[in-house]
């Protein structure tokens, strides 16, 4: 998606700072997106689509359509830049029903044979207790 945002900025002749001002986010926010520190949020995507209504959401999210519905009024350089298909952020063919397998490692236990239990104390809610000692 970052590639398509950069492409949009190039087509509109905007610097990252100008782009941030245009869509109403902090300049550091766009810097973090471009550097890869942060990923675009839904709020960010909505601001881009609101400010640039000619940009199609499918293009921005998936890179599978043209950047705009009507590109006939665009300069030739913009049309050529758009003709390159950007990589998709999400694969629409992926099933959302499958859950990834999560493997939780078991904590390593280090048994020390030289340690032995001396006493076990059980405390009760009536303020009494009982002590157990191994035989």
Secondary structure topology:
Blueprint lengths: L1 H10 L4 H8 L3 H9 L6 H10 L5 H6 L13 H7 L37 E4 L5 E4 L3
Antiparallel strand pairs: 1-2
Helix pairs in contact: 2-3
Overview of the structural elements:
This protein is mostly helical and about 140 residues long. The chain has a domain at about 1-80: 434 Repressor (Amino-terminal Domain). It is built from six helices and two strands; from the N terminus they run ααααααββ. The chain is rod-shaped, with a radius of gyration of 29 Å.
Rg for CA atoms: 29 Å
Range of helix content: 25-40%
Please mark out the parts with pLDDT under 50 across 5 or more consecutive residues, or reply none. 71-76
Strand residue percentage: 5-15%
Specify the CATH homologous superfamily of the domain at 2-82. Answer: lambda repressor-like DNA-binding domains
Strand order of the largest sheet: 1-2
Number of strands: 2
Overall pLDDT metric: 75
User: In CATH terms, what is the fold-level topology of the domain at 2-82?
Assistant: 434 Repressor (Amino-terminal Domain)
Oligomer status: single chain
Which word captures the global form? rod-shaped
Counting DSSP H or I runs of 4 or more residues, the number of helices is 6
CATH level 1 name of the domain at 2-82: Mainly Alpha
Q: What's the main sheet like?
A: 2 strands, antiparallel
Structural class: mainly alpha
Distance between the termini: 68 Å
Provide a short characterization of the protein structure.
This protein is mainly alpha-helical and 135 residues long. It is 37% helix and 6% strand.
């Amino acid at each position: 998606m970052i590639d398509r945002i950069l492409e949009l900025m190039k087509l509109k002749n905007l610097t990252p700072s100008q782009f941030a001002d245009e869509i109403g986010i902090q300049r550091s926010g766009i810097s973090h997106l471009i550097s890869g520190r942060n990923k675009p949020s839904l709020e960010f995507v909505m601001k881009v689509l609101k400010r640039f209504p000619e940009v199609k959401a499918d293009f921005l999210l998936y890179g599978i359509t043209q950047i705009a519905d009507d590109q006939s009024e665009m300069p030739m350089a913009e049309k050529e830049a758009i003709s390159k298909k950007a990589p998709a952020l999400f694969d629409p063919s992926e099933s959302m029903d499958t859950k990834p397998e999560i493997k939780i490692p078991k904590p390593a236990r280090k048994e020390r044979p030289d340690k032995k239990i001396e006493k076990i104390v059980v405390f009760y809610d009536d303020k009494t207790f009982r002590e157990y000692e191994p035989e």
